[in-house]
């Protein structure tokens, strides 16, 4: 029987077949179809064995063998797996599941991953299309770009990025107009920003830095944490401002200034001072007159356009410091041809903001705030107190208070001024002192707005400003409210206890039924 089968196979192999051949089937569906003994439970002999090799043939296949399939055993230098001959590239190509390499450093691992290495053999473009391309440095390796073996760009595994050589930024693409450069200047850095192809800003660590290199109308501004115009260079008008973006002179300082060496106005050096205040012990300046109780006892004016405001009185445009000897008050005023008192200092120590008649160490007519957060604090150390006792007022006081809306009348502005200009129009919330005095007299005090300085050394006189008025210290409300909350919380706790007891009682009744 074996001889018959062998003879038939030999006959078949010596003939040209144009029909289909089946092994394990009488109805082949292709030129050659091999069926397993059992598709669901195959035997270990079901399959086709491709020729095994340990090494690739010494003589390469030809075009006639293009597509020749072999199986590397892994016993030689070739990674285990299937390979086919690609006559176009004259290389053996590994199929997925094997591990092979070609002469340009391309490797295919058994897992199907592709490893790149070696030199390209032709110009290559990678078209990403709609897909992203990510280099993940998730180990200790670095990503480097070299030019003839010299490192030019590198991303280290620690996240740092390095450039080797000059760097250019261009508009839209690498052939666009240049926007900025970072170059080597004698082993020092030099950063340039361009405008329309020309250098506009040149930061050179080796020599000097230049802003607005092209001499155009390009202002320069330095901002601090609290001042948007800490330094402002107005290129249009050739002016420099400190603390202002609208300098009116070549140099304008908005705020205080300190000169530690010397001040020169109109001279090339400060050897000959135009303004000099010098003393071996205590340098001082005196501004005043030769009479007592004079309204004009001295003024220091900070003026704009001085040639147009030459009078020594109230005609100025800016700020003014002046002392009124008749009232014994020092004023800080501002305005332009019309004076407005902004701050008042009395010899008694009272200071007023937006009022000419302060009635306390600090009187503010209008709004006030404290920047930077925090709170106004008072000393509350037990070591600084005596006669300490419990304070018990709470709901009993709060429930008697009658809050009201109100606006100030003309008498208020006559005494204390307009403040922010809305004292007689803005609606405030508060209490009526006379009403509060009936229930909490310790919260109400009397202020005398009249002034009598007739006993002063300068021989002043008494002045009536309208008499006595009541003021309210509302700080007590804070602690009364604290007691109120505590008192109400006790009531809430008691009510909650009753509710819990009622719940338990209801629960027992329900369970009983």
Q: What are its keywords?
A:
13% helix, 513 residues, elongated, alpha+beta, 6-stranded mixed β-sheet
Write the layout of secondary structure elements.
Layout: H1 2-13, E1 21-23, E2 32-34, E3 52-53, E4 69-72, E5 81-86, E6 91-94, E7 100-101, E8 107-108, E9 114-115, E10 143-147, E11 150-155, E12 161-163, E13 167-170, E14 178-184, E15 189-195, E16 198-204, E17 209-211, E18 220-222, E19 231-234, E20 239-242, E21 251-253, E22 299-303, E23 317-324, E24 329-336, E25 339-346, E26 351-353, E27 362-364, H2 395-398, E28 404-406, H3 410-416, E29 428-430, H4 433-439, E30 444-448, E31 451-452, E32 462-463, E33 468-472, H5 475-512
Parallel strand pairs: 1-2, 3-4, 20-21, 26-27
Antiparallel strand pairs: 4-5, 5-6, 7-8, 8-9, 10-11, 11-12, 13-14, 14-15, 15-16, 16-17, 18-19, 19-20, 22-23, 23-24, 24-25, 25-26, 28-29, 30-33, 31-32
**Number of DSSP strands?**
33
Structural class: alpha+beta
Largest pleated sheet: 6 strands, mixed
Compute the gyration radius: what is it?
48 Å
Mean pLDDT across every amino acid position: 81
Low-pLDDT residue intervals, each spanning 5 or more residues: 1-17
Strand order of the largest sheet: 22-23-24-25-26-27
Distance between the termini: 97 Å
Percentage beta strand? 25-35%
Note the total helix count. 5
Q: Which word captures the global form?
A: elongated
The share of residues in helices is 10-25%
